[in-house]
Each structure stands twice: as structure tokens, then as C-alpha cells.
Amino acid sequence: MPLLLARLQAADPALAGVADGLLWDGAQAGLSPAGQALLRALQDQQALDQAGAEVSAVADILRRDQKFAPPGRPSLQLVQLRRQQSAVQQAERVARQVAAASATAFIKQAGLTLKPGVAAGEFMARWVARLPA
Fold first, then answer.
1. How many domains does the chain have?
2. Window from 8-17, 49-58, 69-78 with minimum mean pLDDT
3. Range of the domain at 85
């Protein structure tokens, strides 16, 4: 997926042969609307992955620091870490909603049919995985 993202960001003309020309607009020599929607969806998915990594990192730090905290009132550092954890969790939830919306927008723009019971992000990831490298 990172390779496709880099090719979309660079507006690589080799994309004309990918996915039956769905991603490339030959008339404008640039990305088609579906290609632009896929670019946004991949960028949003990358932001979601980054937010997930941040949540994990803050949770690890909080677990480590809580392990050695004395009983009683939490220290200022622990309170700040809990606030930070709450903030990154909220950012991850927002990123998840944005990624789902952009995946849905790509599917609609590309004219693909989403099967019932399949998440838009999952469908898009499978569709991208089938593309030739």
C-alpha cells in the first residue's frame, strides 16, 4: 500500500494501466476523480495507522509508570499521561471515522459494489491488495 500511495502522490503516468485505467485520467494527464478519492482514502488510512501507534505508545508509558506509582492519589505526571491518553484515543476515533468516510467515498467514486456486511475500509484494502505492484 505505501508504494501505491507514493505513486498516487507523484501522479505516476504508469497508473494508466492499473485497474483498467480507473485511477488515471488520460485527457488531463493526471489522476481521475477515483484516483484522487483513493489517494485521500490511503492518506486517511495512513493517519489512522499513525494514531493507533500513538495510542499504543502512550498506553505503554502509562502502564509502565502506573506500575511503580505508590498507592493513594496519583501524581501529576500520571494525571497528565491519562489526559494525553484520552486525547490520543479521541484522535484515533476521529481518524477511524474519517478513514471510513473516505473509503466509502472512493468506493462510490470508483463505481464499485460493496457487499453487505463488509466494512468499506476492509473492502478497499482488499481491492488495493489485488492491484499489480
1. 1
2. 8-17
3. 2-129
